[in-house]
Design goal:
single chain; Rossmann fold
Length: about 220
Amino acid sequence: MTIGVVVFPGSNCDRDVQWAIEGCLNLHTRRLWHEETDLNGLDAVVLPGGFSYGDYLRCGAIARFAPVLQSLMDFAAKGGRVLGICNGFQVLTELELLPGALTRNQNLRFICEDASLHVTSARTGWLKAYGKEASLVLPIAHGEGRYQCSNDTLKQLQDDDCIALRYGSNPNGSVEDIAGITNASGNVLGLMPHPERACDPATGGTDGLSLLQALLS
């Protein structure tokens, strides 16, 4: 299997993701520069964290127009598995592959700490290994991770069982403690915490390993 890792100007977690996938899962990765359009041969695609295009306008707002993401839209529409982490989650909402938006943290400060999480839905393959109501700890590092959406969108997420992860202690003011969501089809997952930073007991535990292993599903 080969996992694509998208790289924008300003990405800073792409190598972390590659290290976790190659070193912990023993899978091949392929770096996808933002100008590429060829996703042939890829089994899944990861949008990593960082500051795509410097986040000068709004997180993910410029990245959404990158050629690689126009191809990603088709990839996701055909059922391809897409994982967006932190800035990658922000990009997915800008692309409207996931609903809602990520806004500035409630305290208006950058937060870098371990976050306790609860699995709210194991409907899709992303979190089946944990099981519903499981608890895990993953690092977070963001200044704009406060998930917001309309009441109608929130109800739709609840009705479709698309709220995948909730914070145990909400660090950023996200509505309904939301830390991660899927699309209705279940092939696209966006989350603010960093599973790639929790794949090795020597560097921060292994609670993120099963989530990355779901790229194999």
